[in-house]
Specification:
The complex is a heterodimer of chains A (252) and B (421).
Chain A (H helix, E strand, L loop, with lengths): L1 H19 L32 H8 L2 H6 L2 H4 L39 E4 L4 E10 L5 E8 L8 E6 L3 E5 L2 E7 L3 H6 L11 E2 L23 H7 L13 H4 L8
Parallel strand pairs in A: 1-6, 4-7
Antiparallel strand pairs in A: 1-2, 2-3, 3-4, 5-6
Chain B lengths: L11 H19 L4 H8 L4 H17 L1 H10 L3 H21 L3 H63 L2 H10 L1 H9 L8 H5 L3 H5 L1 H10 L9 H5 L2 H17 L2 H12 L4 H29 L2 H21 L3 H29 L6 H30 L1 H22 L9
Helix pairs in contact in B: 1-6, 1-8, 3-6, 3-18, 4-6, 4-18, 5-6, 5-7, 5-8, 6-7, 6-15, 6-17, 6-18, 13-17, 13-18, 13-19, 14-15, 15-16, 15-17, 16-17, 16-19, 18-19
The chains are: A alpha/beta (252), B mainly alpha (421).
């Protein structure tokens, strides 16, 4: 039996070693891949093509080390989300699809990232992103609360309620909403109409068909109103609790 | 060991080893609870992928219990089974920590589910093999107590680890815990585990010359005991499995629902309240289980089963009717009563029922499958009721199911304790 104890010890050592070594993490599909700039010469159509780079990546691997070094100089930093410019019909450069390189500090993924309030409280993690038919991002789904995975709730929050920048670069994700506002919001359920919490102080969006006041089962937020009485957020009557999420919340 | 050793006279070293084993295994298993979905989320997994991995793991745990139980019965060295399972769980923790590809994490999770199916029956079978049927009740009480303390300490430690170090560190700590667990296993002397008893044979068979012959005949322990289909015809086992299914049908959805409710209703300290909801039953199980073991031996199994089953609908009613978060946490006292009672009496009743059949681990697997089925359907029912009708109705519905479970035990479940000869 002692050999099994030794085996267990060896396994732990191997695990620690492999964790410490530069493990090449596999690219997840939602990570914006920094594509090698294949067209230093052509007028760069300012379209980032993360989804098209994986097929191209094996061919362009050899050019990555060369491309990465001069990348900051060669590629004009283009804001990531921009309407595709009317591209002049340029002949595609010899190596394939034109792409844009984005520095590490410029962009970051959102899934699984922590969201904090302006006061620094932990507000949960972004677990999904709601997108409209025109490609416009409407809301983020935040997994809020709970302990060790028990008792968390998913709440939809307007994309404009989130701030992504700190010191000019993409950094911590913060929101002006308070814990109470998120806590009392109706839960997001897949397959039902989405109730989106608006950004504090913002007017309700003009076109927000997805955020129509859903007849969400108000029974769970409803008993909360008499029981818990936080300063402002519970002021709306229980019956209008889910509808009140549509109107801008009174400033906390 | 001398052939004339009386069955069920294990040494101090073995008993201490068994205590340590249950403690460290509980520590080991705590890292694999709902925390895994938090960890995977922070590793940027989509909810769909997380759901897929957890569902597949759930299926393996559900359908793997019966084959695992047969395997545990067939292998005569329960220590070997336990050691292999523990090392496998340790490796799966490492896989979860360092793996980044979907197949790696999926394999690690499935490995853990499969290893857990063999580990629990192996430990219970070892306990029976060490102390025999006469003292198994007290022993199971002690095991439950150590396990509960182990998981409470591990939950606190891993919560702190996850907050102050990283989510990944939790799995490294979990992997490291396999070392003390295997060490505790080495303290259990193999010769003191009676292989016939551990499978569920009777004492008269194991202790004397007949035991000698049985050991010689069974050799490696393969195929001993009654054919497995006879176990399915054992009415008491089927009734027990049915009661366990009904209990978990009502029970499993309650904690996540009340956790969600606490997050909604309590303005600042929801996480603390949920932690309290988890701690209260653990503390009760840790303190009450040894007594439950003694009472099961002196009063019988049935009164305790009835008590445990009765506490469930009461708890559901409390959750449905109370609004104050503190009262919701207080209602978890009933969860503690049920957990303490069932945690000791159900394996005990299984030991009683499978006595002389030689299929103790298989019987555990059958009841365990019932547990898994009930729990899986319960979360679906609870979720549906809460979505459509609100949480109060959901708790009422679950209480009704709990009451049906109680009536089933009352009407159908006989006393399984055998009067000592």
């Amino acid at each position: 039996m002692r050999y099994l104890t030794g085996l267990a010890g060896v396994a732990t050592i191997i695990a620690v070693a492999s964790a410490v070594s530069p493990a090449a993490r596999a690219q997840t599909t939602d990570q914006p891949a920094a594509a090698p700039a294949t067209a230093p010469v052509a007028p760069s159509p300012a379209v980032a093509v993360p989804t098209e780079t994986p097929p191209q990546a094996p061919a362009a691997q050899s050019s990555v080390p060369a491309a990465q070094a001069p990348a900051p100089a060669a590629v004009a930093p283009v804001p990531p989300v921009v309407a595709p410019q009317v591209a002049a019909p340029v002949a595609p450069p010899p190596n394939g699809t034109p792409a844009t390189v984005m520095d590490i500090g410029e962009v970051d993924g959102v899934l699984g990232r922590n969201v904090r309030s302006t006061a620094g409280d932990d507000m949960g993690r972004i677990v999904d992103v709601m997108v409209g038919g025109n490609g416009q991002v409407h809301a983020a789904i935040i997994d809020f609360g709970g302990f060790l995975g028990v008792g968390s709730r998913k709440v939809a929050v307007d994309w404009r309620a989130l701030q992504f920048a700190s010191e000019g670069k993409v950094g911590r994700i913060t929101t002006g909403l308070s814990r109470n506002q998120i806590r009392l919001a109706p839960e997001y359920k897949n397959g039902e109409a989405v109730v989106v919490l608006n950004a504090p102080g913002a007017a309700p969006p003009a076109a927000a068909p997805a955020a129509a006041a859903a007849p969400a089962p108000a029974a769970s937020p409803a008993p909360a109103a008499p029981a818990a009485s936080p300063p402002g957020a519970a002021a709306p009557a229980p019956t209008a609790d889910d509808a009140s999420a549509q109107r801008p919340k009174p400033a906390p | 060991m001398t052939p004339a050793r009386a069955a069920g006279a294990p040494s101090r070293s073995s008993l201490r080893g068994l205590d340590g084993l249950t403690f460290f295994v509980a520590n080991l298993q705590t890292g694999f609870g709902p925390f895994v979905s938090v960890y995977l989320t922070s590793e940027r997994w989509t909810q769909t992928d997380i759901g897929l991995v957890l569902t597949l793991g759930g299926l393996v745990s559900l359908f793997g219990q019966i084959p695992a139980g047969s395997a545990v019965d067939a292998v005569s060295s329960k220590r070997l089974v336990a050691a292999t399972s523990i090392v496998a769980i340790g490796f799966s923790a490492v896989g979860l920590a360092v793996g980044s590809l979907f197949p790696v994490i999926l394999f690690a999770w499935l490995l853990h589910s499969a290893a857990s199916c063999t580990l629990t029956p192996a430990i219970t079978a070892m306990s029976l093999g060490l102390v025999g049927h006469g003292r198994i009740a007290a022993r199971l009480g002690r095991n439950a107590s150590f396990a509960s303390v182990g998981s409470a300490i591990a939950a606190a430690g891993m919560g702190a680890c996850g907050t102050y170090i990283s989510n990944q560190a939790v799995f490294f700590v979990t992997a490291a815990l396999m070392v003390p667990a295997v060490y505790a296993l080495t303290r259990i002397r193999p010769a003191e585990i009676d292989p016939v008893l551990a499978r569920g044979g009777s004492e008269s068979e194991a202790g004397g010359a007949a035991g000698q012959e049985a050991r010689a005949r069974h050799g490696g322990g393969v195929g001993g005991g009654a054919p497995w289909w006879r176990l399915l015809g054992e009415r008491r086992l089927l009734v027990l499995a049915l009661c366990v299914v009904l209990f978990h049908l009502a029970n499993a959805a309650m904690l996540p629902l009340v956790g969600s409710l606490l997050t909604l209703r309590s303005s600042g300290s929801a996480a603390l309240l949920i932690a309290a909801c988890l701690i209260v039953p653990q503390v009760m199980v840790a303190t009450l289980s040894p007594s439950v073991g003694r009472w099961a031996q002196s009063w019988g199994r049935r009164p305790l089963l009835l008590l445990g089953f009765a506490a469930l609908p009461v708890r559901g009613l409390c959750f449905g009717l109370f609004h104050d978060p503190m009262l919701l946490v207080a209602a978890q006292v009933f969860d503690g009563i049920s957990a303490a009672a069932l945690g000791v009496v159900v394996p005990l009743a299984i030991a009683d029922i499978s006595r002389r059949s030689g299929r103790f681990a298989l019987a555990q697997g059958i009841v365990g499958t019932g547990l898994g089925l009930g729990a899986a359907v319960s979360t679906t029912i609870g979720g549906y009721l809460a979505d459509r009708f609100g949480s109060a109705t959901a708790f009422m519905g679950l209480s009704i199911l709990g009451f049906i479970a109680f009536v089933t035990v009352f009407a159908l479940m006989p006393e399984t304790r055998e009067t000592p000869r």
